[in-house]
Amino acid sequence: MTAAPSSARQRILDVATDLFYREGIRAIGVDTIVEQSGVGKATLYRHFPTKEDLITAYLDEKEHDYWQQYDEVLVQHEGSPREQLLAFVDTVVARLLQPDYRGCTFLNALAEFSDKEHSVHRHAVEHKLALKKRLLQLSQQAGASDPEMLADQLMLLINGALASVSTFGATGPTSQLKPLATQLIDQQIQP
Question: What does CATH list as the number for 51-188?
Fold first, then answer.
């Protein structure tokens, strides 16, 4: 009997995740989510008392998936922080090449929620800060001559690629992510 509520919750979250990502968080109302998930409005509100709670669950799920992929890449190149940095860039490039790619979930959230005090904005900023921290740790472990600078440069490149692919496509400026990241890494870390 307890499987039905979690199943309904997951169905709501799956539908919201798809719609929020494809069409934008603010563009999608709870009525659309209710209709497409096949649950009643009362069921949606039982699991997510407010739309903001649903948005938070969406961001939490996307973040979990992101860090899981990040960690899988690190494990594959354990013991070589330089290779971990390069492999992470490869995963970003692979994400950008997906046909359904519509931008970075967290950059999109920042664009939609510009109020720095809004919980969605703060959540997205925290994700980006966590990524910078992880890149800094890898840069330090790899023996970068200036780990802070390398982490900043990689963040700039990655976020620039994530933001520009929707405008220029994967063959435009975004295609320079891997060669530029490799060049920056090679300048600071001896292979």
Answer: 1.10.357.10
Residue corresponding to tokens 């973040």? 63
Residue 92 · residue 102 · CB < 8 Å: no
Whether the Cβ atoms of residue 37 and residue 11 lie closer than 8 Å to each other: yes
- Whole-prediction pTM: 0.90
Task: Assign domain 1-49 one CATH number from 1.20.1250.20, 3.40.50.300, 3.20.20.70, 1.10.10.60.
Answer: 1.10.10.60
Neighbours of 60 (CB within 10 A): 12
What is the dihedral sign for C-alpha 78, 79, 83, 89? positive
Tens place of pLDDT per residue across the chain (191 aa): 444 556 999 999 999 999 999 999 999 999 999 999 999 999 999 999 999 999 999 999 999 999 999 999 999 999 999 999 999 999 999 999 998 899 999 999 999 999 999 999 999 999 999 999 999 999 999 999 999 999 999 999 999 999 998 888 888 888 999 999 999 999 999 86
- Angle at 167 (CA atoms; ends 148, 92), nearest 5 degrees: 40
Say if residues 144 and 153 touch (Cβ distance below 8 Å).
no
| Domain segments of the chain as ranges | 1-49, 51-188
